[in-house]
Design goal:
Number of helices of chain B: 0
Oligomer: heterodimer
Number of helices of chain A: 0
Structural class of chain A: mainly beta
Order of helices and strands of chain B: EEEEEEEEEEE
Order of helices and strands of chain A: EEEEEEEEEEE
Largest sheet of chain A: 6 strands, mixed
Strand content of chain B: over 45%
Strand content of chain A: over 45%
Radius of gyration of chain B: 14 Å
């Protein structure tokens, strides 16, 4: 069973702080990694994708991938109340898996003023 | 740009009734299509995926079925709903890549189904 694990939280940070979200995966052959944001009652929205070891930055978001340790993380700098949502980590094994993603349970993030 | 539609947005159905949820994608050709279900407070569970017209792969055995009658249309159906079928149903698409692997998946707005 290929698994993706996230701390369900809730993770509470003050406005302006850095929020750090973590995700581990069991399939060492995984090749593609994604972070989705899901507001309550809405569908997931893709915010970051990362395919190689290291950091990838996009605005206030930084995704970090370490394939040797099988973890991927998302940093949100200068957190805003509008960042309060559930963050889903998704992993794909690559090869001929036809783009199928395995999702973690999600981490609830609350940014308080 | 690409757009994905789902309808209806919400649905309340009695146990034992049939179900038909529809998903269409605009602005792309030959996409991979996916149906997910998200139960309350739970993660996303992949139900079906399709790489082409008439091609359906099932991930979880259940009383649901899927069909892809047209390139950009994906339908989720059931002949008789169970209470456990309640949830948030999400359709997603991705670009198809001949070498496999993942490309970003984009979700539709979802259908919230309550079985009573």
């Amino acid at each position: 069973q290929k698994e993706v694990e996230q701390n369900s939280g809730p993770l509470s940070v003050p406005e302006g702080a850095i929020a750090s979200l973590n995700c581990t995966y069991s399939d060492r052959g995984s090749q593609s990694f994604f972070w989705y944001r899901q507001y309550s009652g809405k569908s997931p929205e893709l915010i970051m994708s990362i395919y190689s070891n290291g950091d990838k930055e996009d605005g206030r978001f930084t995704a970090q991938l370490n394939k040797a340790s099988q973890y991927v993380s998302l940093l949100i700098r200068d957190s805003q109340p509008s960042d309060s949502a559930t963050y889903l980590c998704a992993v794909n094994a690559g090869g001929t898996s036809y783009g199928k993603l395995t999702f973690g349970q999600g981490t609830i993030l609350t940014v308080h003023p | 740009s690409q757009t994905i539609h789902q309808w209806p947005a919400t649905l309340v159905q009695p146990v034992g009734s049939p179900l038909s949820l529809e998903c269409t994608v605009e602005g792309t050709s030959n996409p991979n299509l996916y149906w997910y279900r998200q139960a309350a407070g739970r993660g996303l569970q992949l139900l079906f995926y399709s790489v082409g017209i008439g091609q359906i792969s099932s991930e979880v055995p259940q009383n649901l079925s899927a069909s892809r009658p047209q390139d950009r249309q994906f339908i989720l159906s059931s002949k008789k709903l169970l209470l456990s079928d309640s949830g948030f149903y999400l359709c997603a698409w991705s670009v198809q890549r001949t070498s496999g692997g993942a490309i970003e998946q984009y979700f539709g707005p979802g259908t919230r189904l309550t079985v009573t």
